[in-house]
Amino acid sequence: MGRIFVVASPSEMTPEQRSEIERDYGVRLPEGGRLASRHDIEAALAAHPDWQVEFRSGNDWWTAFIRSPTRTASLSVERYSGDPARAHSFHFDTGDSELVADVASAVAARCGPFLVVDESESVVVLVNPDGSRSDVGQESVGGSRPGGR
Question: I need a surface site. Which of 48, 66, 105, 115 has the fewest CB within 10 A?
Fold first, then answer.
């Protein structure tokens, strides 16, 4: 089932936002991290040969439609500057929650942790650069996982 997912780096959150998220979701947000560039996202996707990726772009946006053998997801960057090295926020317009978490985890390996939350807040997962995950939502996306890629 496709739904919208917000992806947020703790680095872009205010102290108040961090406190609220930690309180509401019962997860400790690590320090550090950064937003991803197009280069980061393309490299993360290319590192997974079992994912087929189709890119589309316009004047100030681009998307990556990702297909795994059994799932799909659509990653979107809006307000794209045109500079593939510049960091931007990204989200998923639609996608299977497990593939969304896997893609966010692959990007996290390059950029630091991300919190992934779906539009209903039933999926809440913190993905970390070491491959670990804290799956704290009502709906599991493969469960929490220890690190150690």
Answer: 48
Torsion angles phi and psi, residue 140, rounded to 5: -80, 145
Cα–Cα distance for residue pair 68/51, rounded to 1 Å: 5
What are the residue ranges spanned by the domains of the chain? 5-135
| Length, in residues, of the chain | 149
Mutual angle of helices 97-111 and 38-46, in 10-degree steps: 120
Task: Report CA Rg, the chain.
Answer: 14
Mean pLDDT by 10 residues, the chain (149 residues): 87 94 92 95 97 96 96 96 94 95 97 95 92 87 67
